[in-house]
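hey so u asked for the seq, here:
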Amino acid sequence: MYIAMVSSECAPVAKVGGLGDVVYGLSRELEIRGNTVEIILPKYDCMRYDHIYGLQITYENLWVTWFNYQIRCTVWFGFVHGRKCYFIEPHSDDHFFERGSYYGFPDEHIRFAFFSKAALEFMLQSGKRPDIIHTHDWQTALVPILLYEIYKFTGMENCRACHTVHNFKHQGIAGENVLWFTGLGRPDYYYDQNRMGDDFNPSAINFTKGALLYANFTTTVSPGHAWEVRHTDWGYGLGHALHSHQNRFGGVLNGLDYEMWNPQTDPHIAQHYSVDLIDRKYENKKALREKLWLSHDYKPLIAYVGRLDTQKGVPLIRHALYYALAHGAQFVLLGSSPESGTNAEFWQIKHELDQSPDCHLEIGYNEELAHMIYAGSDMLVVPSMFEPCGLTQMIALRYGTVPIVRSVGGLADTVFDIDFSDKPNNERNGYVFYQCDHYAIDSAMQRAIGLWYDYPDRFRELMLNGMKFDYSWNIPGQNYLNIYNHIKHS
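ran it, structure tokens below
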């Protein structure tokens, strides 16, 4: 099968968050299974060009009609760690992708509307006819609409569209100027509630809503989150549209890059280990303590790795830190916040606990240290308010670090409580709590710390259970192929 991925990100060349990891990991898995995959990206000036091999011009004069004039683009080709990638470079006074940053501009909807049209125009003019065009998040949500309203009639009638929503909070809200720029026109037609009309703002179109209606199938990044966005506020106003099109909507759990995250080969950790050599994990705990100047007392080490923002449950992260220190555990935190006030708060905590032999806060992000923390910790807390998929808990399981999570989204799909899960004992792999208050996380942490001290053999079984799970791209890759085959023949 021939699949074109159209995305604003692909790790590691253009990565801001998990979206980039998914595009790279899924593309790699699909290729391993014998499919042809090509990734189409904007050519940002701030990309990691050192991760592109053989970058060269492949299409010199791509003319894209934009309102009542045309913008010339150059299309580049290169390999990103083996993946075939095309980079579209528009030559425009708007400098759509020459701004020193991937996101964060007031004309964001215009930038990515242009990229969406340019990606389809490139396929049309170069003779590419993918079986499946797989788009990601609001930035490329216009592609299915453009495909079925314009490009279907120009020779691309056999292409099918699959769209993945990674984050429902950001949907792509715009005015009718986007319709005129892209050539869709007809505001009265597209403002209809059954097309792109936003359900809450009658003067706006909604890119993501349009993709839900036009794509042959839409996914989100875990089965649990697929239920949440249909039945709770986490759909951010799209619940009705999702319910109306539920026969073309489902959740596919993201995979984890098992090459990057592998305790048997990880170049960043002090000692490699596996299920059969689990004792070697404790050398990593020792190395982590030495690096962070923590004491080597007989205590469990609990960690948090990730952003410090509202979604991740900042009050519960803070509470978990103090709870751990008050109940015979050490705590390590690696993360930063997009909110200056939250950063300042955690800097204050860092100064307050600076002399503690049981605590270290690293405000920022360090890839090498992240690997060391996953390998060296006994437990990892993930108290998210919502979590479409989550990778940290999967990494923790891969490294034999027991996750303590709130039961939402992908966390509920991947972590099963040692005491209360309906799974068999050998498939229970962590601790789960439900409410978003201190009492709930206290209960889970109390059980986890208690087991570590009182029943170390049982705790080790829990570690091994987690390491035996397969959260690679193997199963999600097959799930996506099933979707592709379904929409290709329907």
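Residues 299 and 329 are 5 Å apart (CA to CA). The chain has two domains: 2-255+474-488, 275-468.
lmk if thats what u needed
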